[in-house]
Amino acid sequence: xxxxxxxxxxxxxxxxxxxxxxxxxxxxxxxxxxxxxxxxxxxxxxxxxxxxxxxxxxxxxxxxxxxxxxxxxxxxxxxxxxxxxxxxxxxxxxxxxxxxxxxxxxxxxxxxxxxxxxxxxxxxxxxxxxxxxxxxxxxxxxxxxxxxxxxxxxxxxxxxxxxxxxxxxxxxxxxxx
Length: 177
Known about the structure:
mainly alpha; 0% strand; rod-shaped
């Protein structure tokens, strides 16, 4: 026994509405509802602004700077700790390429593991917002996420391979008896 009254009209437009079209829609709404303009609204959701992509890339650059700085410290400490390993490799006759390969994989493990785990844990709360009863839809910027989680660790590991330390020198110590 309740009277139904239409209160909203949704439409999908193939092109963005112009100001003149919005004014015409408002006039048509007033003619149909016969209510004051403050009680009727015509709005168009245009989606995110074009600056959103620029902001996402700027945030990626900041994150990359932080990741590179922390990776440089972690890799540097790992290489200092690995000097004994370099000496062992040199004593076995391993060439510079072997040391470079070890530096590459060591860097990839240090940076890649941190990037993948950090990205996964960082994106998890955003996906939680989409759960039933959540507050907002989440559309991840997959290009930036893939860049920071996959491409950056590979680039850091490649730089580590190129900049692998000085040649290992074999130090012999005299046995004291």
